[in-house]
Each structure stands twice: as structure tokens, then as C-alpha cells.
Amino acid sequence: PSLGRLAAAMASIAVAFVGLMMIVAAIGRNEQATGAAGWGVMMPLTMIGGAMIPLFIMPAWLVRLSALSPVKWAILALEGATWRQFGWSEMLQPIGILLAVGLVAFGVGIKAFRTT
After folding, report:
1. Is the dihedral of CA 58, 59, 64, 69 positive or negative?
2. Burial class (CB in 10 A: 0-12, 13-18, 19+), 82
3. Less Cβ crowding at N or C end of the chain, within 10 Å?
4. What residues contact residue 10 under an 8 Å CB cut-off, 6+ apart?
5. Separation of alpha carbons 21 and 93, rounded Å
6. What is residue 21's predicted lDDT score, i.e. its pLDDT?
7. Would you say residue 116 has pLDDT above 80?
8. 25-59: burial string, b at 16+ Cβ within 10 Å, e else
9. pLDDT, tens digit, for every residue of 49-106?
């Protein structure tokens, strides 16, 4: 395993999920609502992203849908950095998607905080 690729994967995963949680935090009116919204967002993302049900078991249409979940890209980034032996060129896609999700979601979350 490459420590550099693993660090990059972990950092991009952190960016993605901090961004998503910024949106959730902006939506919630109180702690209970925010906590429930966090579960409501993360549960479907983990289910279709391959964290609860491995992608190879899913039907083809659900595997295609899983590309919308940042959880899929987080798993792929971690696997690529550890046991799949991805090179940097192969790591660019999952890391890039995670960073894009995180930055866009963070921006949306900031805007939502300002409007509330």
C-alpha cells in the first residue's frame, strides 16, 4: 500500500463528507432534526454506494445508480490505495469526484447557512 495515495484518499473522503454534512447542518433547525437528516442522507448513500451491500451483488441498474453516491467513490479510493494497488492515474477519478462533491456541497451549505 502507498501511504501517499492512502493519505490522498482519506483527505478527499473527509472533504466530501464534511461538505455533505454542511448541507445537512444548514437544513436542520435544531439538533434532533439535523441528526435525523444526517441519517436520512447517509443511509441511502451507504446502501447504494456499496457499504452495506457489495456492488458485485447488486443488479446492473443499481450498480449504475451507485455512481451517484460518494460512498462508492470513497470505498474505491480506499481500496485503490490499499489492496487494489492503483497508481496515481487510477486514483484521480475517485479522488477528483470526492473533492468535487465536497467543494460543491460545502459551497451549497455555506449559501444555505447565509440564507437561514
Report:
1. negative
2. middle
3. C
4. 78
5. 22
6. 96
7. no
8. ebbbeeeeeeeebbeeebeebbbbbbbeeeeeebe
9. 999 999 999 999 999 999 999 999 999 999 999 999 999 999 999 999 999 999 999 9
Q: How many residues does the chain have?
A: 116
CA distance 85 to 78: 10
CA 21/CA 42 separation, integer angstroms: 9
> What would the grid cell of residue 88 be?
496515481
Q: What is the largest CA-CA distance in the chain?
A: 45
CB 49 within 8 A of CB 72: yes
3-class SS string, 49-78: HCCCCCHHHCCHHHHHHHHHCHHHHHHHHH
Please choose, from the candidates 32, 14, 35, 9, the residue with its C-alpha nearest in 3D space to the C-alpha of residue 24: 35
Please state, in angstroms and rounded to a whole number, the distance separating the CA atoms of residues 113 and 86. 38
Q: What is the DSSP letter of 115?
A: H
